[in-house]
Write a structure and sequence with these properties.
CATH class of the largest domain: Alpha Beta
CATH architecture of the largest domain: 2-Layer Sandwich
Helix content: 40-55%
Strand content: 5-15%
Number of helices: 14
Radius of gyration: 26 Å
Largest sheet: 6 strands, mixed
Number of strands: 10
Number of domains: 3
Structural class: alpha+beta
C-alpha cells in the first residue's frame, strides 16, 4: 500500500475508533454451530447483554460452558440445566431462541438495530447522532457524526465540482428515513447552504445547522408531493377477503404469532386444512419473551416440523407477515444471520414441496385464534386433533366463503 493509501486507512481507522463504543453496542452474535461466540461472555440476546451477569450462583462467575452444554440429546434446550445455571427471569428470553445445531453455519455478527439484522444507513445515522447512549428523543446532537465525517472527508471526496454534482443529481439512491430519493433532497440542501452563506456574508446572520437541514427536508418533501403520480384506484375490499384454498391435492398451513402487550410473552399457532377447508390438525406453543417477527418465524418453523412428522408432502404455508415471506424467499436465506430463517430454509430443502404465501390478516383468523390459546406457562407444543370450540365458527365462515366463490 502506498503512503497516501496508508495515511487514508489510518485516518479512517482513527475516526471509526472514536465511535467504537457506539458501534460495538450496535452489534451482537448470531449463534450458528457454536464455533466462535461464548454463551456467557458474548452478546447474543441483545437486550440482556452478556449472560454471565445473570448466573444463578455467583460462585459460577468463572464457569466456562458451550452452547452444546445447554441442550439435551435431541438438540432441544435442557430446562433442568438452564434453571440450575441461570436466573429464572432470563430463561423465557433464552428459550425463545433456536437450540444448538452443530451442522449450522459459523457464528457471525449482525446489526442489532434492525429486526432483520441488516445494516441500514438510516439506523446507523440515528445511532451515531444520539447525544449519549440510547435515547427516545427525536432530535439528537449531530456533533459525533460531523466530527467523524469531517475527519475523513479529504479521503472520500475526490471528484471535481461538476462530477460531484452529476453523481449526486443523477443518483438513484433513496433516503429511507424521509422516503425521498437522494437528488430530491440533495438539490434543496445545496440551495439552503448557499442561502445560509449569503445571509452570513451580507447580513451577518448565521443559522444553526439543524435549521438548514430542516428547511432542506421541508422543500424536498414539498417537491416530492407536488410531483407524486396520482394514486391508483382503490381495490375493492371485497376482493380476497376470504381464506385462499390450496390447489387440489395440496394441504394448507395457516400460521400466526402473537405477543402479549402485558407480559411480552410470544405465542404461536397453526392450522392444517385440505383444499375443501376441512380440519386436519392444529398446534399452539408458547415460545418465551419475543418480538413479533420472531413469533411469526417460530410459527412457520414449528408448523414445518409438525408437517414433516405427519408426512404432509405438498404444503402451502400462509402467513400474514410479509416481512417473514421476504426473508424466507431471499436467495441468501440459508446464510441469513437470523437463526430461524436458516432453520426454516434447511427444513424446506428436504424431500417435499413447500410454498410460502402472504395472506391478509383478516384471512388468517383461525391461526390467530389458535396462537392466543397457547398456555403461557407451558413451553411444549400442543397438538389439536380436533378443532377447539373457539375456532369452530371461524372455520365454518371460511368453508361458507369457499362455497360462495
Amino acid at each position: 500500500m502506498d503512503l497516501v493509501g496508508a495515511m487514508a486507512g489510518m485516518k479512517v481507522t482513527m475516526a471509526i475508533s472514536t465511535s467504537w463504543n457506539v458501534l460495538r453496542d450496535s452489534i451482537a452474535w448470531s449463534i450458528g454451530n457454536d464455533s466462535i461466540a461464548h454463551p456467557l461472555d458474548d452478546v447474543w440476546i441483545p437486550h440482556l447483554g452478556p449472560l454471565r451477569r445473570h448466573l444463578r450462583n455467583s460462585n459460577d462467575v468463572n464457569r466456562s460452558i458451550l452452547f452444546a452444554d445447554l441442550v439435551d440429546q435431541t438438540g432441544k434446550l435442557d430446562m433442568s440445566k438452564l434453571t440450575t445455571i441461570m436466573n429464572s427471569e432470563v430463561i423465557p428470553h433464552i428459550i425463545s431462541t433456536k437450540s444448538h445445531d452443530g451442522s449450522d453455519v459459523d457464528d457471525s455478527l449482525f446489526w442489532r438495530e434492525s429486526s432483520e439484522h441488516s445494516f441500514e444507513i438510516k439506523l446507523a445515522y440515528a445511532r451515531l447522532t444520539e447525544p449519549t447512549g440510547r435515547t427516545n428523543s427525536k432530535s439528537g446532537s449531530t456533533s459525533g457524526l460531523l466530527t467523524f465525517l469531517n475527519s475523513v472527508a479529504d479521503y472520500f471526496f475526490h471528484l471535481n465540482l461538476e462530477g460531484w454534482l452529476s453523481v449526486n443529481l443523477l443518483s438513484c439512491a433513496t433516503v429511507t428515513q424521509w422516503n425521498l430519493n437522494w437528488p430530491t433532497l440533495f438539490a434543496p440542501t445545496l440551495w439552503q447552504i448557499w442561502k445560509n452563506r449569503n445571509d452570513e456574508v451580507f447580513s451577518n446572520i448565521s443559522h444553526l445547522i439543524n435549521v438548514v437541514c430542516n428547511r432542506s427536508i421541508t422543500w424536498a418533501r414539498y417537491h416530492a408531493e407536488r410531483n407524486k403520480p396520482p394514486a391508483p384506484a382503490k381495490v375493492s375490499d371485497s376482493i380476497h377477503t376470504h381464506w385462499n384454498r390450496p390447489k387440489q391435492g395440496r394441504l394448507c398451513l395457516n400460521v400466526d404469532g402473537a405477543v402479549s402487550t402485558q407480559t411480552g410473552v410470544g405465542t404461536t399457532g397453526g392450522v392444517f386444512r385440505d383444499c375443501e377447508g376441512s380440519w386436519l390438525l392444529g398446534f399452539s406453543k408458547t415460545i418465551g419473551m419475543a418480538q413479533l417477527l420472531q413469533t411469526e418465524l417460530w410459527a412457520i418453523y414449528i408448523g414445518l416440523q409438525v408437517a414433516w412428522e405427519q408426512g404432509f408432502e405438498l404444503l402451502l404455508i400462509q402467513t400474514d407477515s410479509l416481512q417473514a415471506v421476504h426473508l424466507l424467499e431471499a436467495k441468501n436465506a440459508l446464510s441469513s444471520s437470523l437463526f430461524l430463517v436458516r432453520a426454516i430454509d434447511k427444513l424446506r430443502r428436504k424431500a417435499w414441496i413447500t410454498n410460502i404465501q402472504w395472506t391478509p390478516r383478516r384471512n388468517n383468523a383461525p391461526a390467530d385464534a389458535l396462537a392466543k390459546l397457547a398456555v403461557s406457562s407451558d413451553h411444549s407444543t400442543t397438538i389439536y386433533r380436533e378443532p377447539p370450540t373457539a375456532l369452530l365458527r371461524l372455520l365454518d365462515i371460511d368453508k361458507i366463503n369457499l362455497l360462495l366463490t
